[in-house]
Amino acid sequence: MSSCYIERISSLIDNAEPISLAAYWDALNAFAWGYEWSDDHSVYQAGREQLAELRSRAALSPAHARLFHDFEAHERARHHLLATPPDKPPRPEPPGKP
Description:
Number of helices: 4
Order of helices and strands: HHHH
Largest sheet: none
Number of strands: 0
Shape: globular
Structural class: mainly alpha
Radius of gyration: 15 Å
Helix content: 55-70%
């Protein structure tokens, strides 16, 4: 593993604000995954920045990383019109709920 990669991961973790898995799921669900197809460059740019923010939060824990990976796989497949996109991951229960 290169030191450049380690530095990049460290900066992502340092800059990521803590967020519960349920709140992270809500943010992933609300994100406009189709931003890449916008004709408006400002919408495209805002989508890229928001995706970078969501991706940085995936570094918070292995559970956050898995949730991001599964959500991204579902949404990318859906937007690329694949015949059988993976299922959307279920929303995690908020802390303190049985």
